[in-house]
Design goal:
By secondary structure, the protein is mainly beta. Helices cover 2% and strands 68% of the residues. The protein has one helix and ten strands; from the N terminus they run αββββββββββ. It has one helix at residues 9-12; strands at residues 35-53, 56-77, 80-101, 107-131, 138-157, 166-184, 189-194, 198-209, 213-223, 232-238. Strands 1-2-3-4-5-6-7-10 form an eight-stranded antiparallel β-barrel.
Length: 239
């Protein structure tokens, strides 16, 4: 029988409230007051002339993909920065011929397929840094982002200059984070390698076909897998 007093968790089980000292030392990697600015630029193009590959026959086409993503931020405290990021991407494909041969009873042939899409994005981000040990050259960072995107695209058959085809207008909202590694090559410039954004994505698409028919599509997804094909390399300047 207890006549009074307070029984604490440590009195019952003294090992339950013990904390492990992991010997993590806090070092300043990016000091308070610095302005950071940088960006990522990507470009790729392709051209096919009478290309054959397994079941794909007589492929003729050309296209390119161009993207640029500048950003600017401010370190409001040691190893923490906030800022804004902009992104523009343009994708173009002009497929003159495409044959899919899966046997005598199943063949698909496409001629003069045209596709063009332009997208714009604006993001607010919060970035935290952690040096690798006591190093002042190599560090890790994680960037949390809230992104709004707007895109317009067209796909059709023909030369791509007529009003026939399907026009799309898309709005998207993305909440996620992008981890990466930063390596200083000078006192004020660093090379950064980051993964694609992992998190939640919501997208709304409106379609108009031949200026008459209307359609809608809504998608949502959550992706926390690391995609090796979404690795980005860019430069960041600390002023």
């Amino acid at each position: 029988m207890l006549l009074g007093g307070v029984v604490t968790a440590s009195a019952i089980n003294p090992h339950r409230v013990q904390r492990i000292d992991r010997e993590i030392q806090k070092h300043v990697f990016i000091p308070k007051g610095q302005v950071l600015a940088g960006g990522i630029v990507s470009y790729s193009e392709h051209e096919e002339d009478n290309l054959n590959f397994t079941v794909l026959k007589n492929i003729e086409g050309r296209g390119y993909d161009f993207g640029v993503s500048p950003f600017v931020g401010y370190c409001f405290r040691d190893n923490m920065a906030a800022g804004v990021r902009f992104a523009y991407n343009r994708t173009y494909l002009d497929l003159g011929n495409f044959d899919l041969n899966l046997g005598e009873d199943f063949n698909i042939s496409l001629d003069d397929v045209y596709y063009l899409e332009q997208s714009y994005e604006v993001s607010g981000f919060l970035r935290t840094y952690m040096p690798v040990g006591r190093s002042k050259i190599f560090g890790l960072f994680n960037e949390c982002r809230l992104t709004y995107g707007y895109a317009r695209g067209k796909n059709s058959t023909g030369s791509g200059t007529s009003y026939d085809g399907t026009f799309e207008t898309a709005h998207s909202l993305e909440i996620g984070f992008a981890p990466g590694v930063s390596a200083f090559v000078t006192d004020w410039a660093a090379v950064e390698v980051s993964m694609g954004v992992m998190g939640f994505n919501f997208k709304w698409v409106d379609q108009k076909t031949n200026q008459v028919e209307h359609g809608k599509r809504r998608t949502s997804s959550g992706d926390f897998k690391i995609n090796l094909f979404s690795i980005n390399i860019g430069m960041t300047f600390y002023l």
